[in-house]
Amino acid sequence: MEDIIINSENLIEEVSLNFKRYLYTQINWNNRLIGIKGARGTGKTTMLLQMLKASNLRMSEKAYFTLDDIYFLGNSLLETGKLFYQQGGKLLVLDEVHKYPSWSQEIKNLYDRYRDLQIVFTGSSIVDISTREGDLSRRALMYELQVLSYREYLHYQYGMGYPVLKLEELLNSKESIRSLFPKDFKPLANFRGYLKFGYYPYQTEDRLGYFQRLRQQSRLIVEYDMAELKGFDIRHAKKMLQLLFVVAQQVPFKPNINKLAEKTGIHRNSINNYLYFLEEARLLSLLQASGSSAALLQKPEKIFMENSNLLYALSEDAPEIGSVREVFFHNQVSAKHKLSMPKSGDFLIDWKYVVEMGGKNKDSRQILDLPNSWLVKDDLEYPVGKSIPLWLFGFLY
């Protein structure tokens, strides 16, 4: 255990506290069992190391263990946690728990046996703790970390700190929106860069290899992480990747199940299951019709890539701006609000607000007679009448 303790201390010492993800301040760090889900590359590990570094506990009282470490191939989590506790440990952070087969049962045992031990664990976005042996759902306070918002990107990349906006404030307080930003702030100056490169914190490390890294990350999610999904046969990973690639060439679109089945070699009766798995892995997003049943695995009205960086990375040709704007809007708004497809317009937010997307020449004829309806334009700096700038929806978290 000495080696993983040394590694823990080194990682805690080296992590920077300069930038913290939005979720850092929303987590109740006093809870005794905390779970954090999220897709690869969103910054879960960094956030937990920051929490450990900021803790007032002595270094010997806190530790970070990643369960994909080779150490855990020959040592049990339960025994390691017991030894850590016996040596005075008070705060244990467990990363990548889904890589360890009996993680939920052993975390439950640690939680039940050692009442003054706090445990924080992270897992892939595909992890559903309510279906795991031991069922931690009644004990753990769960959170999910999203990709960087446009607001966070400006802070992380350029040091620009701006407040989070509530949806109602964004829609109804048009005159006061401008006053929240400095006079010299140019909201569109970095927006295109964000849409292509800004969703993951590691984008600063290698801009030239960024898309290749996203493609590799997508493959790892399908071939490695999704093995943990209940009902997913890893032998179908190649077809899953093929489906993801086919969808990336034409999203957002209304899916034709027969054509998708023909292009991918997946039986038409399995397409919805595959789409559902890809959504659980945070590679795709599915939009259902407003008023449709909440039944699982129904055919979606539209399919989107989970974010526009993935769209650029997986598209053979440069995606159309109309596709990019819809993918961005869906990604940023669905993090905090329920989206569905209305009878008129492009999106229905929280079953109340209708949104029509467009560029500078878009007019409001399609939603003219609809109450609580707005135009969202991607070339606008600040709200004008019923038109709201697309970039503003990147300030919801």
Automatic annotation (TrEMBL):
Signal peptide: none
Superkingdom, taxonomy of origin: Bacteria
Coiled-coil spans in chain: none
Domain AAA per the UniProt entry, residue ranges: 31-154
Keywords: ATP-binding, Nucleotide-binding
InterPro entries: AAA_14 (IPR041682), P-loop_NTPase (IPR027417)
Protein known as: ATP-binding protein
Organism of this sequence: Belliella marina
